[in-house]
UniProtKB/TrEMBL annotation:
Any GO molecular function: proton channel activity
Family listed: Belongs to the otopetrin family.
Recorded GO CC terms: plasma membrane
Alphabetical keyword list: Cell membrane, Hydrogen ion transport, Ion channel, Ion transport, Membrane, Transmembrane, Transmembrane helix, Transport
Natural source organism: Acrocephalus arundinaceus (Great reed-warbler)
Annotated localization: Cell membrane
Membrane-traversing stretches: 54-75, 87-106, 126-149, 161-179, 191-211, 266-287, 308-334, 346-370, 390-413, 425-446, 507-526, 538-558
InterPro entries: Otopetrin
Protein's membrane topology: Multi-pass membrane protein
Protein name: OTOP3 protein
Superkingdom assignment: Eukaryota
């Protein structure tokens, strides 16, 4: 009788109910032919899990090396391996990933007992929202590329239209897959799932690598813009790109739609690299969670909620930084889009950073000291999402740190006493220090155990007030009384927080708002490190293009990921 109950399909298993079940017959232990003679089922399961991770990792490594060899050959030998050959290889990989994702959605995920557990820490709403945001921008980027290639179809290959078309289908399918299944701890077909996830990760890495190194269309558009500048000023441009002569036969006609495609492509280009990086991080967590069985103590009984309580000065300072940054950004965008950007706008831009970065560094150092003074235990439970957060914070910071060191070398070697050069030099040094101090603060905060929330009785009263408020029609006088009660509750909560937790919340919220504006500015087109021309003239156009396209998306991803980590620190405080 019990066997029949066990074999009955369970299509709507929730994480809590699944974890509470002790019937081991529902557990699909992993098997691998190398370890089929193990005496213990658990030991065979652990060895099979390690072997599956090893072989799927080897698959991804070989795919990445093959694609990297194609891309490198395209860079150094454009005759034997062309950009179209690289696009064909990536199109094949995209199609294979599409087949696997469709099979996962329609086959693997619908099998009985396939998803007995779900990782509550994985696939946070902000990172899945980032997948949708960057995915939408990447779709628009491909649309602009298709439109631009269609207008110039007489001098462009058909592959330049087919490749972005497949890319749109791949982005839509992958975004849907990650939005609905980012928390999955799949319990069936472990090896096939791991290989499919690793193949998708490798494909996204190769798309990111191609976006970083391929400056063909940028050089083409740059040459046309400089041609317009030459006609406008009546003289030759001061520093023409190194491949202008290759693009003279394929010139965009003087139409509004073509200019829109050009501007849209350049504006949305960083979003594509961001999309690839975010997808890789989510897919890696899914890969680590394949076959994972979550015990009771891993499942939170109460999901922490973000409440704007206990902070006053952090939101005020952070909002001021956001407003000033938005003004600087709009001023920069107006000046930088002109044919001859003024020197003053670069001075204002760097001055804003030189004032903001030390404040962020001081706040992070104070927060780290308070963490050291606290007697809060460290959270030592196994958590793949948190481990990945730490790796991503450290890895993404390398983008900005690397660009800063390249800038320091170029600026010191040219003329460090110049005003603009000295500001850019100070900006690079302060950026390195700010990244390091913020990483220490966030990583230390992520490993602290959650504090017990103060004023539980006040929270219960607030919930009762909200229920009563929703059940009756409130007059203007009653509404004023409710606002007054909420304000008193806010002040009461703020006064009952210890000074350490209060300062941690102030610092965390201030850093959240600062990272938001530092994420928005480079994401939507403020790139003075490329547009001021100092480092570009020192390293050359193509070399500095690769450095910036490698470091800039990582920098944007770092600030975006820091927001999530800082919000977690804010909640745990």
């Amino acid at each position: 009788m019990s066997d029949k109950k066990v074999s009955r399909p369970c299509h709507h298993c929730k994480s809590k109910s699944a974890s509470a079940q002790t019937d081991t017959s529902k557990i699909h232990y992993e098997k691998f032919w190398l370890y089929r003679h193990c005496s213990s089922v658990q030991q065979r399961d652990r060895q099979a899990q390690k072997a599956g991770q090893l072989f799927s990792g080897l698959l991804a490594m070989n795919v990445v090396f093959l694609g990297s060899a194609f891309i490198s050959s395209m860079i150094f030998n454009k005759v034997a391996i062309t950009l179209a050959d690289v696009w064909i290889l990536l199109s094949i990989l995209k199609v294979l990933c599409l087949f696997w994702i469709i099979y996962y959605l329609l086959g693997i995920s619908r099998q009985p007992h396939a998803m007995l557990y779900r990782d509550s820490h994985a696939g946070a709403i902000w990172i899945r929202g980032s997948v949708l945001l960057f995915g939408s921008c990447s779709i628009l980027l491909n649309v602009f590329q298709i439109g631009y290639s269609t207008i110039l179809v007489h001098c462009k290959s058909r592959v330049e239209i087919v490749f972005p078309s497949i890319g749109i289908l791949f982005i839509c399918t992958q975004a849907y897959f990650l939005w609905h299944h980012a928390k999955d701890c799949i319990q069936v077909q472990h090896n096939l799932t791991r290989c499919g996830l690793m193949l998708t990760i490798a494909t996204n890495l190769l798309l990111w690598l191609l976006a970083v190194t391929n400056d063909t269309l940028h050089v083409e558009i740059e040459s046309q813009l400089r041609e317009v500048e030459r006609r406008f000023t009546g003289k030759a441009p001061s520093s023409p790109p190194h491949r202008c002569n290759e693009t003279t036969l394929c010139t965009c006609p003087n139409t509004t739609i073509c200019k829109v495609f050009q501007k849209g492509y350049i504006l949305l280009y960083p979003f594509n690299t961001e999309y690839c990086l975010v997808c890789c991080s989510v897919l890696y967590v899914m890969w680590k969670n394949v076959g994972r069985r979550i015990s009771h103590h891993h499942i939170p009984h109460t999901k922490p909620k973000f409440k704007l309580q206990g902070v006053v000065f952090g939101p005020l300072l952070g909002t001021s930084a956001v407003i000033i940054g938005a003004c600087v950004f709009m001023m920069y965008q107006i000046q930088a889009t002109s044919l001859v950007p003024s020197r003053q706008v670069f001075v204002i831009y760097y001055s804003y950073y030189i004032v903001l970065l030390p404040l962020m560094s001081v706040g992070a150092v104070i927060g780290t000291i308070i963490h050291a003074l606290e007697k809060k235990e460290l959270d030592t439970l196994k958590n793949p999402t948190r481990s990945l957060d730490v790796v991503l914070l450290m890895g993404a910071a390398l983008g900005q740190i690397g660009m800063s060191y390249f800038s320091i070398v170029a600026l010191v070697a040219t003329d460090p006493r110049d005003l603009l050069n000295s500001l850019a030099l100070s900006y690079s040094v302060l950026l390195i220090f700010q990244n390091i101090t913020q990483n220490v603060f966030v990583i230390d905060g992520l490993h602290r155990q959650r504090a017990t929330p103060p004023g539980k009785e006040e929270d219960t009263k607030e919930e009762q007030n909200r229920e009563a408020y929703s059940q009756r029609r409130v007059s203007v006088l009653e509404l004023g009384q409710e606002i007054r009660k909420a304000s008193l509750s806010y002040i009461h909560t703020y006064s009952h927080l210890s000074w350490k937790r209060r300062v941690l919340r102030e610092i965390s919220f201030f850093l959240v708002l600062c990272n938001i504006i530092l994420w928005v500015m480079p994401t939507f087109g403020a790139h003075p490190i490329f547009e001021n021309g100092m480092e570009r003239s020192f390293y050359g156009y193509s070399t500095w293009f690769v450095i910036v396209n490698f470091g800039l998306p990582l920098g944007v991803f770092y600030h975006m990921h820091s927001v999530g980590g800082l919000l977690e620190v804010y909640v745990t405080a």
